[in-house]
Amino acid sequence: MRTMKRFKAFRGDRSGSAAIEFAILALPFMVLIFAIIEISVMYFVDSGLDAALHKAVRKVRVGSAKTNAWTVKEFKAAVCADLSYSFSCNANLKVRATVITDMASVTRVSGIAAGSLSVTEDFNIGDSGDYVLVQAFLPWDPVMKLYSFSTARLSDGSYVLGAAELFRNEPF
Asked: Rg of the chain's alpha carbons, rounded to an integer?
């Protein structure tokens, strides 16, 4: 009888229920919040890479890069200078610029082969009136490697952010 009274009293006691509910829900809630932050930062850096590439490509398109005899190193420096979160951008950024002879021959490189970033860097910016395809690839190391949102991942768990510009050189 005494045991039954204690059980009923224990069952009716709600003084620690908020702490227990918080403990149960805190971990999934924090994982969700960190996932949102991780994806937001990744998309922010990806859009920054796209904008930085667009700005550097403008120098190629108007002939300034050709006049100043840019190499791939100078082009990377121009892209990385405009990138907000560079995180060793100059060392990790891979760039491929190729002249397009006809639109049927445009080949896009994915950049990932067997779990590693395999881009053969090329910097052929062409002459006046040439069509040029510039592609940039930047490995992005996520803060939390709990998520696999993309198949575009390297074997070390980092993502590959990419940007591309197809344009025609202006007369110079």
From this structure: 26
